[in-house]
Structure to design on (227 residues):
């Protein structure tokens, strides 16, 4: 099946710093989404971004589908950004059939004051 | 409109006991998914219902796990008997059209098996 790898696995930032999280996937995808699991365990949708660039406040994401990667940018990080960031993909199947969602390994982010 | 709800929010049980997790999807969503995240690892797909039918249950770890969705509404996930490695957070998601971008996740149930 498709492999989804995220880097870095762990990241510590000083509040106010910027960072880039990366998601690499091994095969073509129909869809890609970024999630944030906050310290309380809740899973929050961030971006649905199969291709192109989107921005929402201090966060933005870019997916280059032809090169099989996606980037999540966090600017002016805040302590509330702490948690684990996951990307998830829906592999493309030539037959057009259903393919289950595969999550990446996650990046654990800690933002310190 | 109410979102996806899960019950209980937390559960602490002893090894060998039985636990049943419940998920209520968004009304009208035919697609319902179960995922879990064991400690420190990635979130893994467990299974996918379309209405009351199991579309894909390839992620179910073993036969100690039983998922049902009677009448195509809420779903239950039973673990019997629970083992230590079953500890983690169990997420439910629902979707109207089955696309990843339209999956709405519940808050999760934290399961701790002692």
């Amino acid at each position: 099946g498709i492999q989804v790898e995220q880097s870095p696995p762990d990241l510590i930032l000083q509040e106010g710093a910027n960072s880039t999280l990366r998601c690499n996937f091994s095969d073509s995808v129909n869809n890609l989404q970024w999630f944030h699991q906050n310290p309380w365990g809740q899973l929050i949708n961030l971006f649905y971004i199969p291709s192109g660039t989107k921005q929402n406040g201090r966060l933005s994401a870019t997916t280059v589908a032809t090169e099989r990667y996606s980037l999540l940018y966090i600017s002016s990080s805040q302590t509330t950004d702490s948690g684990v960031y996951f990307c998830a993909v829906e592999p493309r199947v030539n037959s057009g059939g259903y393919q289950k969602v595969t999550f990446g390994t996650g990046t654990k982010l800690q933002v310190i004051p | 409109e109410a979102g996806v709800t899960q019950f209980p929010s937390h559960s602490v049980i002893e090894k060998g006991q039985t636990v049943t997790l419940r998920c209520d999807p968004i009304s009208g969503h035919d697609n319902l998914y179960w995922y879990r995240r064991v400690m420190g690892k990635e979130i893994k797909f467990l299974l996918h219902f379309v209405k009351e039918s199991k579309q894909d249950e390839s992620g179910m770890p073993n036969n100690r796990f039983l998922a049902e969705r009677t009448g195509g509404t809420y779903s239950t996930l039973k673990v019997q008997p629970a083992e230590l490695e079953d500890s983690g957070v169990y997420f439910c998601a629902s979707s109207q059209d089955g696309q990843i971008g339209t999956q709405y996740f519940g808050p999760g149930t934290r399961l701790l098996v002692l």
In short: Chain B touches chain A through 25 residues (CB under 8 Å). The first strand of chain B starts at residue 5 and ends at 7. Chain B has a mean pLDDT of 90.
